[in-house]
Amino acid sequence: MFTKVRTRIAPSPTGMMHLGTARTAIYCWAVARHFGGEFLLRIEDTDQERSTAEATQVILDAMKWLNLDYDNKDNLVYQMQRLDRYKQVAQDLIDKGLAYRCYATKEELDEMREEQKRRGEKPRYDGRWRPENCVGEPIPEGITPVIRFRNPDDGVVTWNDGVYGPISIANHELDDLVIMRGDGIPTYNFAVVVDDWDMQISHVVRGADHINNTPRQINIYKAIGAPLPTFAHLPLIHGEDGQKLSKRNGTVSVLLYEELGFLPEALFNYLARLGWAHGNDEKFSREQLAKWFKLEDCSRSSARFNMDKLRWLNHEYIKEATVERLVNLVRPRLTRRGADLNNGMDLNHIVALIKDRESTLEELADGAMLFYNNEPVDPSGLGAQLKANEAKSVEVLELFLRKAGDTPWDKENIYGLIKAVLQEMNVKMPLLAIPLRVLVTGAEKTPSIDSTLEIFGKERVMQRLAEGISKWKELLAGK
Ligand code: GLU
Questions:
Q1: What CATH topology corresponds to 83-180?
Q2: What letters, b where the CB count within 10 A reaches 16 and e where it falls short, cover 303-320?
Q3: Would the pLDDT of 11 be above 80?
Q4: What is the Cα–Cα distance from 359 to 313, expressed in whole angstroms?
Q5: Is 247 a catalytic residue?
Q6: CB of 11 shorter than 6 A to ligand 1
Q7: Could you tell me which of 2, 139, 152, 397 has the fewest CB atoms within 10 Å of its CB?
Q8: Which among 330, 285, 304, 170 is positioned nearest to 243, based on CA atoms?
C-alpha cells in the first residue's frame, strides 16, 4: 500500500509554533528516521486571516532551530497553492454521488439547529440538500453553495490507533460535513485527506484534539479510494497546574524558549521524553531517539510540563557544549545587557569558567556580566561584613597589592600570592577574599577568586584595588 514510511507535520501558521506541535513534529521525525522514511512539512494556510508570510517564517525558523530536518525543503506544500486540486477531488466526489452542493443559508442552518435543540437532539446537518431530499427543488438564486461530503448513514468507523489502540465511532454520530466552502477554500478535514493522500503519508501522527476528526477523514479516504494510513494521536501537554498548556499557564511558543536561553537539543530531548519513554533514559541524543522510538511506547495520558526538568536537561547540555559555541550564543545576550565586549576580557575564558554553574544561556550571560559591569569601586558595604577587622583587612589588601606587581598573572600564581599574603599576615581567607571581590568586581559572590582575578587582568585588578583601598581608607578616617 505504502512503499515507504512517510510522516508529516502540518502546522497552521498562526504566529508561533506551539510546543505541542513541536513535540508532534519530533515524533513524526523519529518515526520517519526510525524506518528510513521521509518526514515532510506542510503549511496549512487556509485560514486567510492568520496565515501570513511572517507567520510561516516563524514555523520555518522554529523547525530550523530545533534541527527538525524535513525532506521536502525544496518542495514545501502550501495548501493555498493546491486549491485546484481540492476542487477537482471534490468534483470527483460529486460525480460519484459521494458529495453534493448545499444551498442552505446560515439563517436556515441556525434555525435547523435551534429546532433540533428544542427537541432535545444533538445539532447536526439534516441532509436537506442530499440529492434524494431535494428532488424538484429549485436551486435558490444568489447563493454560493458549499460542498458537503455524504457521510455513510450506517455502520461504524474503526481504526487501530498507533497510541490508543482500537477506536470506534458510529456513523450516525457524524453528519455531512462541509468539505469546500463557498469561496472555494477547502475545510481542514477535506484538505488534510487530499494532501496526505497526494503526499503518500503512511503515518498520520497528531494531537489527540484531532481524534474526533479522524472518523470523518477515514470516510473521506474510503470515498476517494485512497489507502488508509496508520493514525496515531498524542495526548496533549498540560501546564504545571494540570490544565491544558496555554499562554496563561506556560510558555507555549517554541522560539520563546530560544529567547529564554534553552539549547535546541535540550528542548528537543525534553519534548521527546514528555509523553514517551525508553526505560529510565532521561538524556538521549536524536540518533538514540530515532533508533528507539515506537509509537506504542507513547503514553496515553497527558504529560505535564515541568520547567525544573527542562532546566536540568539544559544545564547538562550546556556543560557538554563547546565554549566556542556558547560564546557565540552568549555574545548577543551580553550586548543586549550593554556589555562592552571590547573591554579586554577574554569571553572564552569567562564562559569556560562559569558554564558548569548555569542552567540557561540567560543565566550564563547574567553570570558573565560580572566581568563587564563598570560599577565604581565601592567599599561602603565592607564594614558590615568585616566587622571590627576593617583596619587589618586594609593592611592585608595593601600587602596583596604590593606583591601583585611582581606576580606572573595566572591562576596558579595568583593562588600562591593569596596564600602567601594570608600566611604573612596570619589572617583567614575572608579578610582578603571579601574585599578583593567587592573592590575588583563590585560583587560579593564570584567564581573562584584566583580565576576571576586572572580574567580581570593584573593591570585592572591593581588599578581597582588601589582606588578601592584609598576610598576605603578615607571612609575609615571619617568614622
Ligand atoms: N493544521 C492542523 C493542526 O495544526 C494539522 C492537524 C493534522 O496533523 O492533521 O492542528
A1: Glutamyl-tRNA Synthetase; domain 3 (3.90.800)
A2: bebeeeebbebbbbbbee
A3: yes
A4: 8
A5: yes
A6: yes
A7: 139
A8: 304
